[in-house]
Structures are given as C-alpha cells and as structure tokens.
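Notes continue from the previous slide.

Worked example: a multi-chain complex. Inputs as given:
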Amino acid sequence: MPPSDGAEKTGTRAEMREEIERTILDAAERVFAEAGFGGATMQAIAEVSGLPKANLHYYFASKEGLYRRVVERIFTIWLGAADSFETSASPEVALRQYITRKMALSRSHRHGSKVWASEVMHGAPIIQDYLETTLRDWTDSRIAVIRRWISAGQIAPIEPRWLLYMIWATTQHYADFAHQIETLNQGPLDDAQWQQATDTVCGIILRGVGLGTAAAQTQGASQGASQGAFPGPLPQAGAA
Amino acid sequence: MPPSDGAEKTGTRAEMREEIERTILDAAERVFAEAGFGGATMQAIAEVSGLPKANLHYYFASKEGLYRRVVERIFTIWLGAADSFETSASPEVALRQYITRKMALSRSHRHGSKVWASEVMHGAPIIQDYLETTLRDWTDSRIAVIRRWISAGQIAPIEPRWLLYMIWATTQHYADFAHQIETLNQGPLDDAQWQQATDTVCGIILRGVGLGTAAAQTQGASQGASQGAFPGPLPQAGAA
DNA sequence: AACAGACTTGACCAACCAGTCAAGATTGTT
DNA sequence: AACAATCTTGACTGGTTGGTCAAGTCTGTT
C-alpha cells in the first residue's frame, strides 16, 4: 500500500488542517473497508496515509472517533445522491436518475459503501440515530412519492418499501461485492460493462414497476395524463 | 448473550463430538456475523457456546480454522438453495422458486449471510478458490440457461449476469441489512411482510424480464411455444 | 529576534488477545 | 478393577494494539 500522495504545504492553517484530516479520513475509509473496524489498526491507517501513528491521534482522539467521522462523511455523500430522486419528476426519470447515480456512487465510492454496509451489518452501533431520524424521514418521504405514482396509475401497485430496498441492494452490491463480481468477471468491469449493468438494472426495475413498453431513454417522457394511465392488472400490495 | 442451550450427553463418541462442533460453529457464526472476523474474540465465542475457551481450541486448532469451517458450511447451504434454480423448469417457475428460496434463507440464516458478505467484502482471503471454481461454474451454467430462455424468446434479452447479481443482492439484503430494515420497520418483519416482500421481489423481477402480464402464480405456466414467444421490443444486451 | 501556539514524532505502557500446557476428570475396553 | 484414550479447564505467555507523553520542530506575530 503506497502513501496516498500528499499535496500539502499550501494554504492557510485551517486549510492545511482540513487537508490533512481528509488525507487521514481517506486512508481510514480504505482500511476500515478492507479490514473491518475490528481488523483495522491505527498503524495500518498511519501507513496508508503516510503519517506517523501518533500524528493520527493528534487529529482524531480515538479510533472510534475516526471511524465515526468516516461513517458520517459517507452518509452525507449518500444523502446528496438521494436528492436526485426528484419528487417533481416523472417515475421514469426519477427512478432512472436515482439508480444511475447510485450505480455511479458504487463505482466511485466502493470503500465508503463497504464501511456503511459493515456498520449496518454489525448492528449500526455508531449511527443508529441516523437510521432512526434522517434515513427514516428520507425513506418515508420517497415512499409517499411512490404511493402517489401508484394512486395516479402511473406505475403498478407494488409496495414502495420493497422497491426501495431492491434499488439499494442492487446498486450497492456492485460496491460491496465488487471483489466477487471482479473474480467472476476475471477483472474489473470496464466502462461498457458498467453502462450495460446500469441499463439492465434500470430496465428490469422500470419494467418491473410497469413502465416497460416504450420507456423514457432520457427526460421528457409521458407527462400529461395524471390519472388512471397505468394499464396492467397486478393486484398485490395494499396501497391507498 | 445466553448460552445456546446444550443438548449433550447422548449418543456415541463421534456423535457427541459432532454435536459439540456444531454448537461451537453456531456460536462462532453468530459472533463472526456480529463483530466481524477481526472484532470477534475466541472468548466471546466461548461465552456464547457455553464452553471454556481452551475447549474451543481442542476442537478447532485456530481462530482462522474455525472461521474457515464457518464459511465453508455457509457456502454448502447456499449451494443447496442454488439447485432450486432447476434447469428444466420454465423461467417463471425457476426464477420464482429460486428467489423464494433465497428469501427464506435470508430469514433463517441471517448470520451466515452476514459472514459470507463480510468475507467477500474483505477480499475473500479465505474462500477465494471457492469463488474461482464452484461459484464460477454454477454462475456460468445458470447464465447459459438464461441465454437459452432468451434465444427461445421466453424472456426479454437482458444480460443474464446482471440479473443474477440483482437476485443475489436483493435477497441477501434482507439478511445483511436486517438491522436497517428492522429499524425502518420499527421491529422485525412479520410473516405477512416477508410474504409480501418475496412476492414484490418476484413480481418486479418477473415483470422486469418480460414475464409480466399473466404470470404463473405456481407451477405449470406457459409450456409449449419454444421459439419467438416473447412479445416485447427492448433491444439491449448482446446475446447470441 | 524573540516568543507563543500549533504541529510532529519516537519511545513507551497498560490492556487485551490467540494460543499453550499440564494436571485432572470422564469414558470405553479388557 | 485396571488401564488407555479422549476430553476438560484454569492458569499462563508472547505478541499486538490503542492510546500517551515529553521532547522536539515549525510558523505566524510583535
């Protein structure tokens, strides 16, 4: 593991401090992702960041404190992508955009996704409050949006909660299980494969919620009919 | 954590040994799932299993050896479920049965799923060979089956690989992220919710691959036309 | 130049952990 | 009953880890 470079030595005191903290957080994110919280050592993080161990403790009081900051940073990035689930857009555009952006995040922030997954798998000891407040609020609001789509007959009457879990699971799988995917693929996915995977996921999900036939490749699809436009039968979940 | 009971003191020498080993493996699976390999301690496993720590080392030489046995046991169970992807059945039956069984496994073997996920996330240091041999073979054979379905026009022309990943991701999410799901749900999923989630996942996937309209609720669906029966357009992945 | 506060770091320590061991208890066999 | 093999377990150990600390260095200010 080579040091993650080091573009220090410029800027004000506060800027330099922020930059060093970011360097440490990047290294920590990677080590926590690869070894888990218990398996990660401050020494390993020190080596990846290119700083002596004692220096880490100058910026972050404890291993747990550093870990907490890593997880909080990831959650913030996730929330940013979550906003692409535009409440105003059509179902096609909203779902396609959200899935696409989450797939991109899985590609660019593999380590972060793993840390989040690991944290949740171990019972979310650090970020339980985030789950109960921010994440629950976000989830509830998107479920309400999806229910409105269903009421308007824009998509099939599926239970929104399981749809959201499906999107989370599928997109994050490409980060969390990247090693398995790359083993089966005999190498990292290339640009075309990422594009194809994203398209396939979008296609299955959109068709899966009843937006199959024509489908909006980009923006500006079926905007107009706001009642009873959904064709199919599919009596399933109980939605108002 | 209470000891996992203890129904010992019966059977032959070999049977008792096997039973104690199973008790230890169960405890280890749980502790590894909850704390990760690095965070788990032999002492914790000893307490959960109700045995003194030195006794664990009598049955399993090392922590890593015990961990390896835990992971191998999980993989075996997984392969069993994987066989429900009957190559002879129709797409509807095969997919529905496979998804249903994987969802059931996520409910009954939460800890095992987490250990597997954790192992893969950390680069599969222990079971890399399983990924390269058994898992790759299984995956290739199922991809071939799906391609045949596509060629026969039974399902939409999606890239089979991404479909398989989607099924794995979605079903295992209910085990690996059970804590997050239960937090958002304010309690464990009940029977009806598991049933609804399974139905929703089956519905989205089946419709997503073009088996939407009528759909086979149980067995014996559209068996007959073996060429060009698929209706929709959807030019997407390149399949022979 | 002199001073103060911010930063750096090698050396150190108490706590903890996987694994060992030897003495004893239990069980099957003759 | 006597013996051997298997199993049990408290006490111990060498190595590792998170965290500390004091002696320094650097940087901005007057």
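Summary box: Residues 1-9, 214-229, 231-240 of chain A have pLDDT under 50 and may be disordered. The longest helix of chain A spans residues 13-39.
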